[in-house]
């Protein structure tokens, strides 16, 4: 077979390319029309949920499932109970919360339940048999102060528990806590160099502010006629000027129940701990000096400063435990976050938002 001249061969190749280009353009236009302009078979197929999708949603609706974690369901009543506990702890009344905010709360709570279920799943399936699971201490704490069986059953019902399931629940909680501690133990070790670095780089951690030790006589405004609290306190001040003991007068007259038995002793305190009016009247006094009678929003005071200590930076040894606790808490939170992220990546988690939200 005779070969075509180069120029004829180029022309044939161009014709073939044009035909292919034309066919590709037609196919592309067909796909675009199918997907975006018409209800074509491809778009219909893509938009149609699979049989598995339909059956999963039907099962979730029938069983009241709002999410699954590795195939383990979280049911709507569990979510409702957890949302109720969330609101109760924060003084919220669910019936008064707008639907939009309530849905935000429900999403937050379902995510917490998913994390709890993840920890339950992995703690039960990884070395759980090696973990002691004695629930007695937790059970004793749960029952503390409740001696009547009927009261205890009522409390359980309020928490959504059946009496026979409490031991199992607390045992699971014990296993989960111990499993978490075992997993993150290596990540929360605090090294000596970290303690020293924190001490050097954050002087505020080891700086003790100016503080005063004082005692006071307090007469409350509440329950008295106008001017009566001031009159009673000024009478106490005259007794003090006459030489009577401050502690004796405080034990007799002061209406501060927390300090009266100790002769009005308040212990050590800083400016930040007290009312601004109290601070301005007291922090300019010298040791052993007694203030003039003065008023705060709650009543009248007479204060004697016993000792003063200026702002000072304490040694590393004095704050070692505090610094160690702070660093350990930071590491613990970071380790927990990393653990949860890792569990989520390994898990199969599915949400059914239409069953989570409320109208």
Structural account:
By secondary structure, the protein is an alpha+beta fold. Among the domains are: 52-127; 210-310, Chitinase A, domain 3 (Roll). Helices cover 57% and strands 13% of the residues. The chain is built from 14 helices and nine strands. It has helices spanning 6-37, 41-47, 51-63, 76-89, 99-125, 136-143, 149-158, 166-184, 192-201, 228-241, 246-253, 276-282, 316-346, 353-356; strands at 65-69, 72-75, 207-208, 211-220, 265-270, 294-296, 299-309, 312-313, 349-351. The strands form three sheets. The chain has a four-stranded antiparallel β-sheet. A three-stranded antiparallel β-sheet has the order 2-1-9. It has a two-stranded antiparallel ribbon with strand order 3-8. Helix 4 (76-89) packs across helix 5 and helix 9 packs across helix 13.
Describe the protein's topology.
Blueprint (H helix, E strand, L loop, with lengths): L5 H32 L3 H7 L3 H13 L1 E5 L2 E4 H14 L9 H27 L10 H8 L5 H10 L7 H19 L7 H10 L5 E2 L2 E10 L7 H14 L4 H8 L11 E6 L5 H7 L11 E3 L2 E11 L2 E2 L2 H31 L2 E3 L1 H4 L3
Antiparallel strand pairs: 1-2, 1-9, 3-8, 4-5, 4-7, 6-7
Helix pairs in contact: 4-5, 5-8, 9-13
CATH architecture of the domain at 210-310: Roll
Give the helices and strands as they follow along the chain: HHHEEHHHHHHEEHHEHEEEHEH
CATH C-level name of the domain at 210-310: Alpha Beta
Query: What is the share of helical residues?
Result: 55-70%
Total count of helical runs of at least 4 residues:
14
What's the number of extended β-strand segments? 9
Beta strand %: 5-15%
């Amino acid at each position: 077979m005779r070969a075509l001249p180069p120029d004829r061969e180029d022309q044939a190749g161009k014709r073939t390319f044009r035909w292919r280009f034309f066919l590709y353009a037609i196919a592309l236009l067909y796909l675009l029309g199918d997907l975006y302009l018409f209800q074509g078979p491809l778009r219909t197929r893509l938009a149609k949920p699979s049989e598995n999708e339909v059956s999963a949603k039907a099962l979730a609706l029938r069983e009241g499932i709002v999410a699954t974690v590795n195939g383990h369901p979280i049911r709507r009543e569990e979510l409702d109970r957890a949302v109720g506990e969330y609101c109760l702890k924060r003084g919220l009344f669910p019936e008064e919360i707008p639907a939009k905010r309530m849905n935000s709360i429900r999403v937050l709570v379902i995510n917490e339940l998913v994390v709890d279920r993840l920890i339950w799943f992995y703690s039960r399936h990884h070395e759980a048999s090696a973990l002691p699971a004695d629930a007695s201490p937790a059970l004793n704490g749960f029952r503390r102060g409740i001696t009547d069986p009927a009261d205890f059953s009522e409390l359980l019902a309020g928490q959504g528990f059946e009496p026979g399931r409490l031991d199992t629940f607390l045992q699971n909680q014990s296993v989960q806590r111990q499993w978490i501690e075992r997993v993150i133990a290596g990540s929360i070790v605090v090294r000596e160099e970290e303690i020293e670095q924190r001490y050097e780089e954050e002087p505020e951690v080891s700086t003790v502010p100016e503080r005063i030790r004082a005692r006071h006589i307090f007469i409350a405004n509440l329950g008295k006629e106008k001017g009566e609290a001031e009159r009673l306190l000024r009478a106490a001040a005259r007794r003090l000027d006459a030489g009577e003991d401050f502690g004796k007068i405080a034990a007799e007259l002061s209406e501060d129940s927390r300090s009266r038995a100790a002769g009005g002793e308040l212990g050590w305190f800083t400016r930040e701990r007290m009312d601004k009016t109290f601070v301005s009247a007291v922090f300019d006094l010298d040791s052993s000096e007694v203030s003039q009678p003065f008023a705060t929003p709650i009543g009248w005071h007479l204060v004697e400063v016993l000792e003063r200590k200026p702002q000072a930076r304490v040694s590393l040894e004095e704050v070692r435990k505090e610094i160690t606790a702070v660093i350990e808490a930071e590491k613990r939170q970071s380790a927990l976050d990393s653990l949860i992220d890792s569990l989520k990546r390994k898990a199969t988690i599915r949400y059914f938002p239409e069953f989570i939200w409320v109208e």
